[in-house]
Give the backbone structure.
Amino acid sequence: MPRLVVVSNRVAPITEGQPTAGGLAAGVMDALRESGGVWFGWSGEISPDAAFCAPIQQSLGQVHLHTIDLTRKDYDEYYRGFANDALWPVLHYRPNLARFTWGDFAGYRRVNQQFARCVADLAQIDDLIWAHDYHLFPLAEALREQGITNRIGLFLHTPFPAPQIYMTNPAHEAIARALCHFDLLGFQTETDRQAFEDYVVRQCGGHAQAGTVAAFGRTVRTNIYPIGVHVDEVRAQATDPANQLAAARLRASIAEGRLIISVDRLDYSKGLQQRFATYEKFLQAFPAAQRNVTFLQIAPPSRTDVQTYQEIRAELEAEAGRINGRFAELDWTPLRYLNRGFPREVLMPLYAVAQVGLVTPLRDGMNLVAKEYVAAQDPDDPGVLVLSQFAGAAQELTDALVVNPYDSEGIAQALNQALTMPRNERRERHAALLKTMRHNSLDRWRDRFAADLAG
Ligand code: ADQ
């Protein structure tokens, strides 16, 4: 395979021998190790003279990481502004939360041009350039302006929304034009791919035919590549005797009780407020569950300098306190809300000791927590996944209990079904889920995308 040049907003701080981070980092790192290559992106640092500095280089074997800092203005306009305040909400069907300015959009393009200049310096003639996610929509156009003729692909980790939602972003046409400068656009699900195609065909006078979309004088191939997890690695982490301390303490603290677990970044797309309300409905509707069930929500803060995120955090803290105030007993806390993250080697065993994985985003590109929960289970006595129909994962994981995250009563019923499901049925559902996940593995995601980009 040709050498890969991966470009993403952040380069994951990975060190050899350490447990792999989330899907993007793990998948990308595997691909790079195999083919050799370069990973370029932001260092995560802000510095006043960033614009004048050459990328910092760090090598792990034949993988070369190149990072640049951003200026405060870049960070405010490109990252916090356009990417996270304007695009992220619209991509997740929440245009009412979006804050758009043309100034931020100009900053977003400027940083993409800066990325493109650095990538143009790094790339060799036959390299495949693989960009990731919504931060880099203008990258191919900017690289073409630099005279780069390499194959360039983009994988979108988030959903692509229905056209009428997408068009609430005033820069929609400029973005679509930029996207058509890629050779290959990868989406998580057919719903996302179709939404992009519909927009280009109906709103931009484009044409779609057999996996290609032509518009703005260019033709781009589109396909779906559902991202997966390393199934065996997750289970190995979940069962490694060296990783059991936290899970054992958790189990001991709830004695014979049943455990429902949710793990998310603290983000409005993940539907945490609705989930807390649903759990309250569940305790009301199934009083027998009181004292016997504990709901553990792990949600570390993310994007803490964005106001909407500060508001969610305050609201969840208040709700957790209110629900516990209403139902708690001297020896039972119904909802444990941990506003912090855990390393993977701690998290995977926590999944394994929970009878239910509750994954109810309002919208999610894929949701790897759902897949990790399934992979971590004991196949002989597995827990049950309750999954939102609006997570990309629901299009593959049809043997989960698939629910509507806006239907509290429906989810309360599903929780009860999950907690009382006979072992045979749990095993059958789990085996079917695992089969699908082995097929759509992280390796296959990466290999298919890279092969299609090269082909
Ligand atoms: P995210 O929105 O970050 O990713 P998700 O796929 O659920 O969402 O999680 C990514 C990784 O982060 C997982 O490996 C998970 O274990 C880890 N993680 C999440 N919450 C955590 C917590 N509280 N503590 C520790 N680790 C945590 C984006 C898209 C998703 C898409 C992924 C990959 O929004 O839809 O599935 O990219 O494409």
